[in-house]
Amino acid sequence: MNAAAAVRSLADRVSGAVLLPGDDGFDARCAGFQTAYRHRPSVLVRPDGPDDVAAAVAYAAEHALPVAAQATGHGLSAPLDGGVLIDTGTLTGVTVDAAAGTARIAAGTRAGAVVDAAARYGLAPLNGSSTGVGAVGYLLGGGLGLLGRRFGWAADHVRAVEIVTADARHRRVTADSDPELFWALRGAGANFGVVTAVETGLVRVSRIYGGELVFDLAATPGLLERYLRWTEDLPEELTSSMSLLAYPDLPAFPAKLRGRYVGHVRVAHTGDHREGQRLVAPLRAAGPLLADTVAEMPYTECGAIYNDPPVPHAYLGDNVLLRAIDPAEAAAITELAGPGAPVPCVVDVRHLGGALGREPEVPAAVGHRSAGYLLRALVPLMGAAPDDARAAMRRVLDAAGQRVGGRCQNLVYGEDAPGAGTADFWEPDDHRRLAELKARLDPANLFRCNRNIAPAAPA
């Protein structure tokens, strides 16, 4: 069968759309939120349901083609060149079981839709800083969320995963049906198939005390060191981070931020708002504020805490997981991200610990739970060459020496060759275990356009 006939055969098996390069809508559906890179498949499938996904995977396996799945394109890591792209953004919807405290989330659903659906019942998902990202992709990568110190990694709360594996079977995987695959999916899921839906636990949160404190770092020197001291004895109910950003003096930015080197402290507290006020008071007293949005809010407004940009753009980002950051390291990080940096770099320090450091009752493949902090560097590619951007990130990340030996895949952005530099997302023994499972379920590495785990070599 020639290529054209093979694609016609696939189209006959799919009730959704099958598009080829040059077809109307092909380029738009291949594009994602990350504009620095994009998938360039030979076939794009826009499924109506799991049967279409299974047909697309079967077609790819028959023709030895790689498969990529994309919902929103926020976390694009290994662009597809040829092969089959499955646009899971067509699979949307949230069903909340209030009595069970769970939500079934279709693969293309954005986090904001889950927040809104759960809020009707006084519940909340364990979403991250941006409500515009795909909820399922975030869960598969571990899920470092706004309420992480109180409730742990979002992946730990997953109850079931609906997935099409390399044999083109659509499965519902639970801790009882397949404990090994269920463990792997919760932290490394994109490696083992195309996920069509996830069932996850929700938490009983309807209001939080949250927002951000914004400081001019010229008026509050040593703010990062002060923030780190503040985090040393916080209760688990408070999850926070601090970002450093030198704003260009451009009309695109708010007037009060233009030309300033700014520190953003973000907080989310699940306890009583009066206790939240007491806990935040030492930071409020650190110096004059450019803005203070920290207040009691409905959880449906949680996206305003970080106010992540909603417009697609080009960026690179990486992180390291740390036991601690000492004052000298904090000073060096602040200097490296400052106005004198040759390439503008956004630095983010996230306070971990609490429930993030505990193993769940049902084990999950989320690595490096002993970390106390995460240090992230992100570079918008606005005129910066990728090599210069990577060098800027490395300078910041290398300033911190107290590492636990790994990274968080939720906060890595940019292109990877399949299998390159991904082992440190997991503990060494867990990575070997994942590679052995990959060899059993996907020995041809059909699903390799992700933070890829190469199949283990035969013994």
Structural topology:
Blueprint: H1 3-13, E1 17-19, H2 26-30, E2 43-46, H3 50-62, E3 67-70, E4 84-87, E5 94-97, E6 102-106, H4 111-119, H5 135-140, H6 148-151, E7 158-164, E8 170-173, H7 179-188, E9 194-201, E10 207-216, H8 223-231, E11 238-246, E12 261-269, H9 273-284, E13 289-292, E14 295-298, E15 315-322, H10 327-336, E16 346-351, E17 373-380, H11 386-398, H12 428-441
Parallel strand pairs: 2-4, 3-4
Antiparallel strand pairs: 1-2, 5-6, 6-9, 7-8, 7-9, 10-12, 10-13, 10-14, 11-12, 11-16, 15-17, 16-17
Task: Please tell me about this protein's structure.
The protein is an alpha+beta fold and 459 residues long. The protein folds into three domains: 86 residues, Uridine Diphospho-n-acetylenolpyruvylglucosamine Reductase, domain 2 (2-Layer Sandwich); 111 residues, Uridine Diphospho-n-acetylenolpyruvylglucosamine Reductase, domain 3; 205 residues, Vanillyl-alcohol Oxidase, Chain A, domain 3, CATH 3.40.462.20. The protein contains twelve helices and 17 strands. β7 and β8 form a beta hairpin. The longest helix has 14 residues. It is globular and about 70 Å long.
Strand and helix order: HEHEHEEEEHHHEEHEEHEEHEEEHEEHH
Q: Determine the strand fraction and express it as a percent band.
A: 15-25%
- Look up the CATH topology of the largest domain: Vanillyl-alcohol Oxidase, Chain A, domain 3
Rg to the nearest angstrom? 22 Å
Shape: globular
Report the strand count. Answer: 17
Would you identify the CATH architecture of the largest domain? Answer: 3-Layer(aba) Sandwich
How many helices? The count is 12
Largest sheet: 8 strands, antiparallel
For the termini, the CA-CA separation is 36 Å
